[in-house]
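Q: How would the structure tokens look for this protein?
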Amino acid sequence: MRLAAEADPRGFLGQMPDGAVLDEVQRLPVLLSYIQGIVDKTGRAGLFLLTGSHQPKLHEAISQSLAGRTAMLTLWPFSLPELRHYKRTWGPFDLIVQGCYPRLHEEKLEPRRFYNNYLQTYVERDVRALIQLRDLTQFQRFLTLLAGRVGQLVNFSSLSSDVGVSSTTIKNWVSVLKASYVVFELPPFFENIRKRVIKSPKIYFTDPGLAAFLLGIHTEEQASRDPLRGGLYENLVIADIIKGALNKGIRPEVYFFRDSHGNEVDLLIREKGAITPVEIKSAATFSTEFVKGLERFGALDLKHVAAGTVLYNGEQRFAVRGVGVFNPLLVEDIWETLTSPQNRSSDHA
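A: Here is the predicted structure in token form.
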């Protein structure tokens, strides 16, 4: 198929009067200029769905030939609303171990075997195509160490020392993981705040199942008892919030906050001019301690800040001192629930 498309792009596309799905299209960018001609001639929208796993190359190819003619959608692994098509209710630690990749659920695959194969093919195909990888063992060790730092500030010097490569190499490797949607960074929020704040990003995995696999966590019970359960739970929830926005074509403005005194808020969502602070706890029992970080952030005298939300692993939904408290896995859509006008009704002027 690829050889045919390369040899005769016009003839190849001419066989598809009603359009087509073209996967890994960045590998044959010559097609895009011919698609541009078809789009301009027919004036029909949605004829072609162009997909690719390597985002920088895909973006570069599309921006050169199809600027202004495309709608870009970023598709992460399944969100919770999508996963409910396979099982109506999910426990967080079951989901952390299972992960959210479509094939896992569609074909009922065993997660441990799936992630082992995924890791091997990803490293062999994508990583080696992007960087000159001399020592595969070092890179795999780096991935495992990164999984152990889920929800923590990125410290390139520490990772460099632990892996045995330079900080520059670590930065390059993180960039590759971000480009291929294995990890994402949550940037710090420090706009208009006079106090000294932390300016390093936090690191999370796009799919919590891969992080759990790298850490040797293979059962729901293991996940619920592991010292990193809080970070993995936070990863699961933040990733699903972001998916909720991306699946609606929204590029979310999300941050975390931490100052030099240790005051912290796990997640800040800026949507429609309002900032919603969110605290994320893996505990099934609510404590009033959970709202203290939100109250301290609310006292910073920023405009249009909601009282905020605590997301926890309990079953009850209620409000404490104006702060909404609920289980993120028990609502239909976490993004919509957090950004709804009702949730932001307790704004400080």
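The chain has three domains: 2-65, 80-243, 253-339.

The mean pLDDT is 89.

Upvote if useful.
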